Amino acid sequence: MAGVSPSITIYPNARDFRIQQQNIYIATGSQYLSNRRLDLIHRLNPIPDASHTRNRKTSPPDSECFPGTRKEAVQDITTWADATDSAPGTEQGVTETISATVVVYTPTPHIYWLHGFAGSGKSAISLKISNVFEESGRLLASYFFFRNAGDRCTLNRFAATLSSQLASALPATVPLLEAALRVDPGLLHSGVSLTRQMERLVYEPFRAVMQGDIEEASAKGPFIIIIDGLDESEDKRGVEELIDQMLDFFERHPTIPLRIFIASRVEQHIRARLEVDGVRLSDLNSYKTRGDINKFLGASFHAVAKRDRVIRAYVRAHGEWPTRSDMYHLGEHIGESFVLASSIFKFIVYPATEDDPSTPMERLPRTLQMNGLDSLYSQTLARSQHLPHFCNIISTIALLREPLPIAGISSLLGIEAFEVVSVLLNLQAIIHVPGTDEEGSVTIYHTSLRDFLTTEGRSRLFFVPLSFHLHLSYHLISSIFENLGVYRPTYNYGTWCLAHHWREASAESYACISTNEQLNAPHSLRANRLPYCAFLCHMLLYSLLDNFPVTGSFPSLFTECAKQLVRAVECPDPRIKLWLEAGMNFDIVNRGINFHIKLTERTQQIVQHDLRRASTAISAKFPDILDLRSRSTTHENWSHDLSVDSISGIDIFSNG
């Protein structure tokens, strides 16, 4: 009977005996299932900070609906999610005649696409919807994409992350998911298509459970999956595949009690697939938000006035602040952008610093002269512009694929942690600064800041060019060699993301690499690290391997690699020996290949000359690590069998 606790009786009629060292284990069915679910989730290995329950300070976007705001938009979405078809079992377009009146039944669309411009509040609404349906027990899963946030900006673990939440929301799916992984052990492998993963790990287990208990499913109402920031996924083809499969699944199962809510900017690859029948479209910009923004500003200024002594003293002397006129002009200036309202508020009330001693009352009029977010970002960044390493720190934060702690950024750039903190403390209106150097990550509050920094026409003096990826590549490889074998965030990040930053830095034609000023004359690189020639030599060989079979650039790459090798081994820097000895992992796609490099006679002579110089230098300076391999230099075609997991400086010489 429901509600009765389990009980057990042992030896009820026994008399005059003793039991020693007895162990009794009692496991109820729910406990067993719970343990199975935990084991399954461990195997699925979901992204821990992708759902609505994440720590938003360390895993942006950090946005939520201010109490009492966005009611109309939220109501429209919940009404759609709650709706059930008027005539279950009928298909779209089926007509029925009732008392001489023709009625056409149109099922509720399974997909809702909320779109709007950057900063309009999409993520805040996604969070609100997630919380609403979590409370009602109908939230199946939530996933918040965020650009440059590791796996959260890809679809690599998307299906597994949704599946882990499915197992928690509907425990009855656990044995079905276990069976799917048992039948297809490689299902979680990155090489498996997203369509197959979603079908086996999300859609089919859910459908099977719903078919098994259709009455309860119908009474409870449709379940919902929340997908926020779909435009921030780097995998555009994967997004197209995801949407195509989604539409196909609902076409095959039109009565399944499942809704999918998507929030994103309007990107063409998303719009082209979602502007179809079966999807409800909603433009967030069509909702009037002026009243909500005024409510947010009024309550926020009232709250800060209670705890800020400067504001309290000003109010005692001068009366209400902000005045009604101030609030009116702020509202007119901000318009419909919630992120602008939030950022302007933070800018106004942020405590005075040595670099900006102005009071909130002095800052408020200045904000009315700002031209939207761009002006706000420029004025905020200007607070730290004069500080050492400002450009390198801001550029690094803008281009990192995954955020790092303060200590990680300082280690990467080869500077002190206090220098990073000094720059960031003035920027807390737009950048989250963790409380300690080692814990937490430095993150931007909104993606629009990264867009601003990487668009020259908008950011001007603060522009972060793609060529800064070259600086990051150099600092990463230097940091890797400085921390070999040490478990540090920078070392881990470098081994994972170095290839990405180098590819971005060397995107232009390799045919011009020998005259590339950015590669041969880098600016503002820290000198007291691995010699730059060793870095270039290392990365050029990586490019040779990574770009096969596009061989047009091979001769120039090979020649430049040999030239940089000579410079490296003739360099007096003691770190060259470590570089020659130590291997470093690379993500080489074409492994175990056999290829031919065709060189002109002149190029071959230059390369041979450089390699002989390198041989002489290595023999004289590092005889203990020299391991010359037999090679032929008499043929026009050189054949190399390269199968590598890591590359060291001596490998570069030996493969020359």
From TrEMBL:
Start and end residues of each stretch annotated as Disordered? 47-67
Q: Which domain of life is it from?
A: Eukaryota
Pfam families tied to this protein: NPHP3_N (PF24883)
Q: Which UniProt keywords apply?
A: Repeat
Residue ranges of the Nephrocystin 3-like N-terminal domain? 108-265
Q: Cite the PANTHER family for this sequence.
A: AMELOGENIN, FUNGAL STAND N-TERMINAL GOODBYE DOMAIN-CONTAINING PROTEIN-RELATED
Q: What is this protein called?
A: Nephrocystin 3-like N-terminal domain-containing protein
